[in-house]
Design brief:
4 helices, five-stranded mixed β-sheet, Immunoglobulin-like, single chain, three-stranded antiparallel β-sheet, alpha+beta
């Protein structure tokens, strides 16, 4: 009933005003950024036609929502750090260890010549002539070794003894006169008769035709 006779109001006009209040401008489903479409001309002009450009730096929530991870550090810095770590590790691995023996193909250590001292000379030894040797000369030089710097004595029966001194290498030599036939030659170190050593030398003169 459009007109109420008791109150004198137009019910149809009231219903149209209530419907206008209950149905405000609806938001289109494709409206970007949640801006109400149709509310004002300025709001409509502020909405860009194309896709909205991303902002930098992206917010963590947007990165997580999109399913990708944005690195806040430039990739060049990360590559430089990894390169430095690799160079340090290579230097530590290739550094020669103390006490390590270089293998084949590696740097060879300078060879040091080790001088082994000769064993000490003990007692008296006659090197030449040999015991029982026959000679054709009336003299012979007896050569031997003894501790360096000691006096060597030739024991001569019924005569004066002969002496010599061993040199820095222990060698000594005494020239001895021979009698025709068998000759016994005895030597010792100084007056120590416990070091005596004797050899026999036969002197046979050369016969002239």
């Amino acid at each position: 009933m459009p007109f109420c006779p008791k109150c004198g109001l137009n019910v149809a006009e009231l219903d149209e005003g209530a419907a206008a209040v209950a149905e405000p401008d609806r938001i289109p489903a494709d409206a970007p950024g949640g801006i109400l479409a149709g509310t004002s001309d300025e709001a409509s002009d502020a909405v860009p036609d194309g896709p909205v450009p991303p902002t930098w730096p992206p917010s963590p929530t947007s990165s997580l929502a999109s399913g990708r991870r944005d690195w806040p550090i430039p990739p060049v810095v990360i590559a430089a750090v990894f390169l430095m770590i690799g160079l340090i590790a290579f230097g530590l691995l290739t550094r020669p260890q103390p006490g390590a023996v270089p293998g084949p193909g590696g740097p060879s250590a300078p060879s040091a010549s080790v001088v082994v001292p000769p064993p000490p000379i003990v007692g008296l030894t006659i090197l030449s002539p040999s015991d029982g040797q026959a000679v054709a000369a009336p003299e012979v030089t007896v050569i031997g070794i003894a501790p360096p710097g000691l006096s060597i004595t030739q024991d001569i029966s019924f005569g004066l003894d002969q002496h010599a001194t061993s040199d820095g290498t222990g060698h000594w030599a005494i020239k001895v006169g021979l009698n025709e036939g068998d000759n016994k030659l005895t030597f010792r170190i100084g007056d120590d008769r416990s070091t005596e050593m004797s050899i026999r030398v036969t002197y046979t003169p050369a016969r002239t035709p």
